[in-house]
Automatic annotation (TrEMBL):
<dbReference type="GO" id="GO:0005635">
    <property type="term" value="C:nuclear envelope"/>
</dbReference>
<dbReference type="InterPro" id="IPR001129">
    <property type="entry name" value="Membr-assoc_MAPEG"/>
</dbReference>
<dbReference type="GO" id="GO:0005783">
    <property type="term" value="C:endoplasmic reticulum"/>
</dbReference>
<dbReference type="GO" id="GO:0004364">
    <property type="term" value="F:glutathione transferase activity"/>
</dbReference>
<protein>
    <recommendedName>
        <fullName>Membrane-associated proteins in eicosanoid and glutathione metabolism</fullName>
    </recommendedName>
</protein>
<feature type="transmembrane region" description="Helical">
    <location>
        <begin position="12"/>
        <end position="32"/>
    </location>
</feature>
<dbReference type="GO" id="GO:0004602">
    <property type="term" value="F:glutathione peroxidase activity"/>
</dbReference>
<keyword id="KW-1133">Transmembrane helix</keyword>
<feature type="transmembrane region" description="Helical">
    <location>
        <begin position="92"/>
        <end position="110"/>
    </location>
</feature>
<keyword id="KW-0812">Transmembrane</keyword>
<dbReference type="InterPro" id="IPR050997">
    <property type="entry name" value="MAPEG"/>
</dbReference>
<keyword id="KW-0472">Membrane</keyword>
<dbReference type="InterPro" id="IPR023352">
    <property type="entry name" value="MAPEG-like_dom_sf"/>
</dbReference>
<feature type="transmembrane region" description="Helical">
    <location>
        <begin position="130"/>
        <end position="147"/>
    </location>
</feature>
<dbReference type="Pfam" id="PF01124">
    <property type="entry name" value="MAPEG"/>
</dbReference>
<dbReference type="GO" id="GO:0016020">
    <property type="term" value="C:membrane"/>
</dbReference>
């Protein structure tokens, strides 16, 4: 028995939104690597120790870049799952929300890597909460809608 999955033409928005998150993660990895090199923090050390960050602006910036990247990675399972589920009924909404979330991660990282962690949210990073909320609501609605029609 064979079965197939048919994607609507608008599924390209979903693909673009999710691929944009991969580009952001790659860019963040480059930012972290640049700050690691400048700070002299060697692998496998994940973060600069508190004393290192207190003594060196470069070590503090490395920690900020590393934390921005880690925070994005921590959110990825939620973003991927909610984007895919929302896209089952609302692919354009899911694609735009995922892409907007990715853009917000750039702003979050740029704010965080100023060395003042408070700026992670004041430079537009908090904007990412809106598309995340849209995806959570959209995926919840889609799941209930799928259950209702079963």
């Amino acid at each position: 028995m064979s079965s197939s999955i048919v994607f609507p033409p608008s599924f390209g928005y979903v693909a673009a939104g999710l691929v944009s998150t991969a580009w952001v993660l790659g860019w963040q990895a480059l930012v972290v690597g640049g700050h690691r090199k400048k700070s002299g923090i060697k692998y496998p050390q994940l973060y600069a120790e508190k004393a290192e960050a207190d003594a060196s602006k470069e070590a503090l910036l490395f920690n900020c870049a590393q934390r921005a990247h880690q925070n994005t990675i921590e959110h990825m399972p939620i973003i991927i799952v909610t984007t895919l589920i929302t896209s089952m009924r609302h692919p354009v909404l899911a694609g735009y929300a995922s892409g907007l979330w990715a853009l917000s991660r750039v702003l979050y990282t740029l704010g965080y890597t100023t060395g003042d962690p408070v700026k992670r949210n004041t430079r537009g990073g908090i904007l990412g909460e809106l598309p995340l909320f849209v995806l959570l609501l959209g995926s919840t609605y889609t799941a209930f809608d799928l259950l209702r029609s079963a």
